Amino acid sequence: MNAVRALAVIVMAAGAACSTPASSEAPSSLRITLLDQTDVIEVTGLSSRDLDRLRRVSWQREDWERLLRVVVAPDSGAQAMLGTYVVTSDALRFTPRFPFDPGRQYAIRLDPSRLPGGGSSPVVTASVARPAPPAGPPTSVLAVYPSGGTVPVNQLRMYLQFSAPMTRRGALNHLRILDEAGREVEDPFLPLDTDLWNDDATRLTVLFDPGRVKRGILPNVEMGRALQPGRRYTLVISSTWPDGQGRPLASEFRKTFRVAPPNERPIDVASWRIQPPVSGSRDPIKVLFPAPLDHGLLHSALGVARGGQAIPGAITVEAGETRWLFTPRDPWEAGPHSLIVLATLEDPAGNRIGRAFEVPGGGPALKPPDSITVPFEVRGASQESERARNRPGQN
Fold this sequence. Notes:
Blueprint (H helix, E strand, L loop, with lengths): L8 E5 L17 E4 L6 E4 L3 H9 L4 H7 E5 L10 E5 L4 E5 L8 E6 L13 E6 L11 E5 L4 E3 L4 E6 L12 E4 L17 E2 L5 E5 L2 H4 L4 H6 L8 E6 L15 E8 L12 E3 L9 E4 L6 H4 L3 E5 L2 E2 L2 E6 L4 E6 L6 E8 L28 E8 L2 H9 L6
Parallel strand pairs: 10-16
Antiparallel strand pairs: 1-8, 2-3, 3-6, 4-7, 5-6, 7-8, 9-11, 11-14, 12-15, 13-14, 15-16, 17-18, 18-22, 19-20, 19-23, 21-22, 23-24
């Protein structure tokens, strides 16, 4: 096989793919391969006339999928993978939106009768797979955020953290919320065409259906909110959920939580307490919030600057998302610093700085600035000692 052809390719056809298409040149062969070191499926053996016709069609996604369909094996009836179709000088290529999971089989079906103008060659099927990495311990659920035992009834999202990469499709098939009687809550989550994973597929963002959360929207009127205040619920993550290598999780995961009344107040930065560090140390600055904020956004919407320049360092979120710590890469310098808060920061109910998720009376929401700067001072060790001596009760 040519060096640019991939590994682990099995091709099956109903007879040799050499029957003469009804309205095209007879292809010498039709072959499906996975290009080496890529996630590109390539179909070769199509006639130059068929390739030319494919370049000129104005097809929708469904038309391309009828011609060349890629799904996760062995479920040939599963939803086709999303991706792009490109016709080169000598081949038809499909590139999936997300990379193939190593060690997982993918089923491919090419139907030449769907070519522009039709064709009579038999259907060609193939199975492809990327080599699996060395087997490690089974993947497990590390955490669910919000991590506290109480969530507001108008919660918008959850984060699921895994110990290793997961398969990127079909997440909602493995999630349930049970009420106190063990009954499954009907349709609490928002179904999406594409699950919301981070880059390495170890953290999934799960959205509660905002149409049920926000009052006055049709799903909310017809079904009500999925969660009810004062009740306890259990999130169940099934052990059958396959990881990136197609293996089930190490075990089922359950998290029980209580539902509190709705949180409909904007985030108030003035209510935060900042505990600054001492210069010359690498002790973290601590920011304490009166109520939990969004775990994922706390890692991307807060930072520290000095003189307008961002300070590199590491972020830690603790105490049920009510405490934010930033440890600088280099020791602190004495003097004025700033906590930079982006307007994208939210709490679990979608409230932002100066703007609630639901505006009372349905009026227009005020747009906050892109970021807010909160000044703080890093004192020298001698200043901090003098300050401590002057505190009431210290003498």
